[in-house]
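Aldehyde dehydrogenase family protein
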Amino acid sequence: MPSSLNPATGEPIADYDPHPPEHTEAVLSAAVAAQRDWRATPVARRLPLLSAIARELRADADRFARLITQEMGKPITEARAEIEKSAWTLDHYAGHAERYLAPEPVASGATESTVVLEPLGVLLAVMPWNYPFWQFFRFLAPALAAGNGAVLKHASNVPACALALEELVRRAGAPPGLCSTLLTEPAAVADLIADDRIAAVTLTGSTEVGALVAAQAGAHLKKHVLELGGSDPFVVLADADLDEAATAAVRSRFNTVGQSCVNAKRLIVDERVAGAFVELVAEKTGALIMGDPMDEATQIGPLARADLRDTLHDQVRRTVAAGASLLLGGDPVPGPGFF
């Protein structure tokens, strides 16, 4: 069941009933009908909708940022930046999509050859909780510009964000049915992918779930775009400015409380400066302010769920058991929330 839980306190906010099959049926049928008209709309007439969504985002930025922080726990300053990044992305495609989508003549042995980008249809977006607004709009802006419709299946721990996104796009003036949210269990994704009304699927999530979605989409010969996990290296050479490098490493490692595919995860350091670099990283990490993510001064909030905290703690214990040195922390923080 989709449920909203405050990671900073561990207290439930609200439970949401999954949408029943008849609602899913209505959403998919409405999306197909709306996309049929939308694809016939000239590109130049589609783009004002993107600008309107960006305006709605900025007009209610504080409420949306607080909603993100309340449901998944990232510091409010980062949540506010996510809203602005989403609006900027919408503005970018509003200003450039007409050029991106323009037919492109190409040289060939034929009398005339042109690359034409046509809409796919209704797209299923399976989106993650770590950037509940940005990841959706990163997908939606180019999808709408290109004449597609969208059905959002968001992560089950951010249902309020998912419903707010649907309402936001509707309020900005999107044609009824063109962009909708479905509150469903993860197991229902396979049926959505199989449905003839879904033309393609995009997923941002774990490698394991990506493999499942790729197999399901492939079984139905449907296009799919996957953004999966990462293990990004952070390389420090002997001639680096170590203080600057340590500052960047800490910022990169702990953005979104370390819950991002683009966080620095493997710090590779020239052994000649490794000791000094480790000391600086420990010092700067220890100076980060942990606390209520709604507090403007907070830099480290809770992890998004209790199971994520437990998994991280298990990783720390196993790493220390394998011979690693523990320089800072190492245990869950006593008290409420998933710190």
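thats it. The two ends are 24 Å apart (CA to CA). Residues 76-100 form the longest helix (25 residues). bye
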